[in-house]
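Appendix B, example 12.
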Amino acid sequence: MRLEAETLLDHIESFSPEDWAQPNTSFHQEWLHIGIVYQSATAIYCISSLQSLGILPITAKLSAMQFSHGERLFVALKTAVSFPSVRKFMLWPFVVAGVEAAHHSIYEKDWVEEQLTLLSKDAGSSSPLKAITVLKAFWLKERGSWDDCFDVPNAFIS
């Protein structure tokens, strides 16, 4: 199983948001940021969840990869939310960023909470508010694992 997990991470890493966004198209910047956001969120999700299951080991290399994708995710999300057409499709990446924010400062946590609140208003859905409740409980645990955040089934769907 470890080999399959490592192969999966290699596929995620080899994805090129730049190629996927198709340069010289009218919505290139929007698609580029969607690709970056989802690549980094997917990498963080895979590393975190597969380590939590014991399929991937906790290594310096994977920690560095997760940290790098965390930094990249925050930067890309900050740009992605400036596109009104993109903002509404960022719930899952914001939840992943919220889990990652547990390893960052209060500013990242506050920013994720603010953005999820705005997303709730924009989308007319309570799902982002439900995500905030789960994330705040997780942040209080200080440095918990992926499964500590999602210790019960959560579907952020209203």
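The chain has nine helices and no strands. The first helix runs from residue 2 to 14.
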